[in-house]
Amino acid sequence: MERDTLKPIIWDDKNSQLILIDQRKLPHKLEYFICNNYEDVAFAIEDMVVRGAPAIGISAAYGMALAEIKGDDIEKAYHRLKNTRPTAVNLFWALDRCMKAYNNNRSILSEAKLIHEEDREACKKIGEIGERVIEDGDTILTHCNAGALATSIYGTALSVIRFAHYRGKNIKVIVDETRPRLQGAKLTSFELKYEGIPVKIITDSTAGFLMKRGMIDKVIVGADRVLRDYTVFNKIGTYSLAVLAKYHNIPFYVASPTSTFDFESSIEDVIIEERDEKEVLYIDGRRIAPEGVKAYNYAFDITPFELITGIITEKGIIYNEKDKRIRT
């Protein structure tokens, strides 16, 4: 039985609309963004109305479906959506599935619905499998937002935490604020509060201090792309946490559906998105740095498998880099 949790992506069959929780408005307002065509979907991805690798992929698939329904140029829609963001592999995976369906005279909408349903099942399975790594009484650190808002339901890292909570484990969660867009402070804390899971927010630079004090038992994060050697691309700051966890002998887990795995690319092939420096220089429209000062704003970093305790997938937990079950 599916629990009453956040559903960030809704397809409205009656009106042929994609309905998205507008994550730019959280946590203060729960509002929805209506997509009537693929351009609306492209804007939603670029402007982070919707974000998180699986959610981006699902939304892009529905964007292709809208192009099909409206009689738009499918190739044009494909390339427009493909160029919205460069790092999360689910975007390209979902768009390629939709193009394959179209080229084989199958319904793009049916394919989009299938992608959506597969993600729901994968997220649920990740939670059911992953909760076993959490012990009663654990305090878990997570980074950015790998929850329902980043997927179709439950989330990846937060699915593991949710299912531990559902099964009666007494847990607490510490959330990195995750500068510069504060997805941890704004989104993850919102989800955990919604579920009634005890949560506290810390600045990104506090994690090491808490680890040193023995206040963190596990670290669980999501992923935007996982390569063949299980190198993980995820929100900037993930690599730093992995290094800190390794030093302090704290288990560090990545939760990721197999749709986020990329067995074709090498590290050099992956483009690390560099977003507008204004995201760093301004907070809520107010400049916090002196005029004339520039900023780096890399959205993702790279964590090698040697720093990772295990990768939790819907097919099981990968503890060894020679584990090939995901590749088959």
Assembly category: single chain
- CATH architecture type of the largest domain: 3-Layer(aba) Sandwich
Under CATH, the topology of the largest domain is which? Rossmann fold
Q: How many strands, what sense, and barrel or not for the largest sheet?
A: 7 strands, mixed
Give the integer mean of the pLDDT values. 95
Number of domains: 2
* Unreliable segments of 5+ consecutive residues: none
Query: What is the molecular shape?
Result: globular
Give the CATH superfamily of the largest domain. Translation initiation factor eif-2b, domain 2
List keywords for this structure.
328 residues, alpha/beta, Four Helix Bundle (Hemerythrin (Met), subunit A), Rossmann fold, 2 domains, 4-stranded mixed beta sheet, 10 helices, globular
In short:
With 328 residues, the chain is an alpha/beta fold. Helix content is 36%, strand content 18%. The chain contains 10 helices and 16 strands.
